[in-house]
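Sequence in, structure out.
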Amino acid sequence: MSQISAHLLEILAKLTAIKSSIEQSNSEISITIAVDTPSPLPKQESPEDKNVDTLRFFIDTLKKLECLPVQIIISLKERMDTLTNTINSELKKTRVIHGYLTEVEEVKKHQKWLNYSIPLHKARKIGCSNEFLDALSVRKFTLGEVKSFCEFICDDDSFADPQLEWNDFLKVLKLALSFENDQWNPIKKKYMPWIDIKKLKKDYGKRRKNSI
C-alpha cells in the first residue's frame, strides 16, 4: 500500500501541472488502482510523519487527487472491508470494484435479470462510468436506468420508453439481443444472453397486462 501511495503522489504532481489544460478540454482522467493484499495494513513511514498509518496516508493521497479532474477506481482482488468502508465514507469520486465473482454476487442481488459477464466487469475497472453502471451492485435499477443500460449494452438508442410502452420496449430488446453474442454466465456455467427477458419481466412487468 505504501508503494501505491508513493506512485499516486507522482501522479498527483504530474496531473497538478497539467490541471488547467485538462479542464480547458473538458476532459477527465481515469485512474485504476489494483490492490491485491487482504491483510491488515501495517504502520508505515511517510515523508511527513514516521508514525502515520498506511491506510490514512493512502486515503489522504486519494483526497488530494479528487481535487483534480479525475475519477478513481480501486480494483480489489479480495474483499477488504476496512478499506472499502473508509473509501465509501470519506471519498466522493473514488469507486471500489471488487473481484469479478464478488461483483457477480453483488450485482445479482439487485439486477437478477442481468448476466454480469467479464467484458462488463472489465469496462467498469478501466473507468467506464455513468449513473447506472455505478448503481449496478448497489441498488435495483429504475425503469429509466434499465432502458439506458440496454441502450449501452446493445449500442442502440431506438428503445421505447418502458414506462410508457413496455411491450414495444421488450420487442426492441429481443431484436437487439439477437444481434449480440452470448456471454459466459459464471453462475449457470454456460453462455447466455446479456439479459434474461423472463426475469426482467418478472421484476418490472408484474403489474403490466398483456406483456409479451
